[in-house]
Write a structure and sequence with these properties.
Helix content: 10-25%
Oligomer: single chain
Distance between the termini: 53 Å
Number of helices: 2
Shape: elongated
Radius of gyration: 18 Å
Largest sheet: 5 strands, mixed
């Protein structure tokens, strides 16, 4: 029986999680969580991990604005997402919340500005 230890990152509490897997690799038990969000985090992290991507984008005027994905993207797509972000150019006058790239890499997540130009 295989086990994996995680620390939940959903809130500042940082619950220690233990995920136990069956012979076929399926999750048979999750312990240590104190809320439903911790259980969902453990299951997702062990079956299909996702990450929020943060970076910067240059504007047409040459300034830099910070950006992030509006939702977590599959971990295996992070490098493709970064390639698109690196090619992007934001319009002048970009504001927090403006969409810079819609549906980045077909993930359903947008890349949005997190700072004003």
């Amino acid at each position: 029986m295989k086990e994996r230890n995680l620390t939940c990152i959903v809130c500042p509490k940082g619950c220690p999680l233990k995920v136990t897997f069956g012979e076929n690799g399926e999750i048979t038990e999750v312990t240590g969580y104190t809320c439903k969000r911790g259980l969902v985090y453990a299951e997702t992290e062990c079956t299909h991990p996702k990450r929020t991507v943060t970076s910067t984008v240059v504007t047409e005027g040459g300034n830099i604005v910070s950006v992030k994905t509006s939702d977590a993207v599959p971990k295996e797509d992070m490098f493709k997402v970064m390639e698109e972000i690196n090619r992007a150019v934001a319009p002048n006058g970009v504001k927090i919340g403006d969409v810079i790239i819609k549906d980045v890499c077909g993930s359903g997540a947008d890349v949005v500005a997190t700072s004003n130009e």
